[in-house]
Amino acid sequence: MKPRETAARWLLATTLFFLPFSASLHAQDAEEWHTTSSLIPGENEDKPFERYSYVNPDAPKGGTLNAVAPGTFDSFNPFVVRGTAAAGFSSFGGIMYDTLMQQSLDEAGTSHGLLADAFRYPDDYSSATYRLNPDARWHDGKPVTVEDVIWSFNVLKKNSQLYNRYYANVTEAVKVGEREVEFRFDQKGNRELPHIMGDLAVLPKHWWEGTDASGNKRDITQPTLEPPLGSGPYRIQSFRPGSEIIWERVEDYWGADLPVNIGRNNFDRKRYVYIQDDNAAWQAFTKGGFQDIRPENSSRRWHVDYTFPAFQAGDVVKRAFETRSGEPFQGFFLNTRRPQFQDPRVREALTYAFDFESMNRTLFYNAYTRTDSYFEGGELASSGLPEGRELEILNEFRGQIPERVFTEPFTLPTNETPRDERANLRRASELLKEAGWTLRDGRLVNEAGEQFRMEFLGDDPTDERIATPYIQNLRRLGIDASLRVVDASQYINRTRSFDFDVISSVQQQSQSPGNEQRDFWSSAAADAPDSRNLSGIKDPVIDKLVERIIFAEDREDLIAATKALDRVLLWNFYAVPQWHLPEIWVAYWNKFGIPDQQPAYIGVDIDSWWIDEAKEQALAAKYRSVN
After folding, report:
1. CA neighbours within 13 Å on the CB side: how many for 324?
2. Contact 125/39 with Cβ under 8 angstroms?
3. How high is the pLDDT of residue 18?
4. Any residues with CB less than 8 A from the CB of 540 and at least 6 apart, and which?
């Protein structure tokens, strides 16, 4: 039922996850070559990008970063649904493959050159042309070519559900120069699309179309455990299937001196050890040698359990990093593909049954804040009653969306007193009765006498801590609620195929939403395996609002359309919102050099840290190695 309590911030801060951001381009910039594009106007928009301001440009290289990965892996191909990709890979390349541009780590809606040194687009946003950096090389020394880019676009759009939806309006990639590739679009006016073409992971055509050591032709459509050829800062040094993978820094990495990489990628090796159980991972961290940096997603551990000898001796440090990237939406997603969740009154009732305040007080040390928007923590979140341009947009759909969108500010039920809890459960019972469910002999049943059942899907025994209080309240309503914990592989497969009733998950949004909203909410994504439309939403109004966001005329229109979408999602109760933490909790063994500042936008950039040799030697002398 991951995440445990909250871990979405860490997803942004590590190389294991790369979420496509979007933004609005400035029309007056059309047809100019851009090496950096600040797509949300800001103070640094016109300044040349020399490096990230927070990094230490003289950071030493060396040492090993030890990390723990959950579950298992059986593939080095992250671009297809089959298989579980190893730590270090992601759908947008990870540390193996460079993308055309790198999304900025310290500014929203900004990208800097990587494989491409510049891009441009016409003023109607009907295409985008990217110019490859002449120095870009694969790890075998061969140049990255326009043919590689075109081949990658074609195979990824064909075989990856994510790429197919993300680049749905890109019709073709065409070579227009020795180093230039033009992406052509089937619609005009999509201001973000020229920019997000920079998120494309570029793969080596000559390697994938070649043969392996046994003479078998490689197949990009299938999982593989043959270490692939890449272009990024790391390559696979060794691995044990399902148990361990070690990455080595590429010493002659072509992009080491690019502005986006100065002072970063400082570890000679990244070693990931797979551990199935979170408690076992915690014990491994306290002993040292398996996990050097731990993103802490348990408030109980953060407040109570850091009492082990290494922490008391100052050899393990706790630190909270503030962020300003907006808050992730974390919640219990209700699978409307299941018949019991198709009535919005049922979904609203389940929201009334969730007692956040008691959980925050008794389980979370009052550390969290309740989330009440899918775009929490910024100007995109809806609040109060709609007005202005947002109201104009919503008025187009009167009669097709809940009337309360116009008449009531959205608020979540609270449980400050036992009286509140009783009142909320009573309201939940009323809503369930309106939806055709009645209480008979302590069982909530429909007209056919079938009991209401809902199963929470989890992948770790610690999920019980989060699910149990909610399950207890649901049972008070006569619902047969339960938790099923499965192994990591089964969890991934069941999530990909939407084989669950309820799942706890995180959806991280950018400050300028765009094409990726189709993957979150569209009818087309509802039945697409591995999409992020976990609730199975199929609503023509939401489809239209998503398209309104994608084709927003300007920033003001984008904000209004996003608020409208947020409001419609909330009033349809597709998920029971949980909580968020406006900072990242990190504990680490005191072996690192860390820049004085970390990027406020994402909170922490581990790749800007480095091994402090003196500190590491002191720890090694003090503690017996467990490697």
Report:
1. 8
2. no
3. 36
4. 400, 523
Q: Are 353 and 413 in contact (CB under 8 A)?
A: no
Regions of the chain where pLDDT drops below 50: 7-28, 43, 626-627
- 223 closest CA partner among 12, 11, 18, 489: 489
Beta strands in 518-580 (DSSP E): 575-577, 579-580
Q: Which pLDDT does position 623 carry in this prediction?
A: 85
> How are beta strands 316-322 and 502-507 bridged, if at all?
unpaired
Helices (H) and strands (E) in the chain, counts: 20, 25
Burial 568-606 (b: 16+ CB within 10 A, else e): bbbbbbbbbbbbbbbebbbbbbbbbbbbeebbebbbbbb
Phi and psi at 269, nearest 5°, equal -140, 150
Whole-number pLDDT of residue 624: 64
pLDDT tens profile 233-258 = 999 999 999 999 999 999 999 999 99
Tokens 């301001």 found at: 53
For residue 309, give every residue at least 6 positions away whose Cβ sits within 8 Å of its Cβ, in sequence order, or none. none
User: 491 — phi, psi (to 5°)?
Assistant: -60, -45
**CA pair distance 244, 286, nearest whole angstrom:** 19
Closest CA to 545 of 412, 374, 409, 404: 374
Q: Write the pLDDT tens digit of every residue in 55-85.
A: 999 999 999 999 999 989 999 999 998 899 9
Cα separation, 150 vs 198, in Å, equals: 13
Q: Which helix (H) or strand (E) holds 493?
A: helix 488-496
Other C-beta atoms lying within 10 Å of the C-beta of residue 106: 19
Are the beta carbons of 51 and 255 closer than 8 angstroms? no
pLDDT tens digit sequence for 2-31: 555 654 444 434 433 333 333 334 444 557
Contacts (Cβ under 8 Å, ≥6 apart) of 114: 98, 99, 100, 101, 102, 133, 198, 255, 258, 260
Cβ–Cβ under 8 Å, residues 549 and 562: yes
Element (H, E) at 234: strand 234-240
- Encode burial over 109-125: b for 16+ CB neighbours within 10 A, e otherwise: bbbbbbbbbbbbbeeeb
- Catalogue the long-range contacts made by 210-217 (C-beta closer than 8 Å, 24 or more residues apart): none
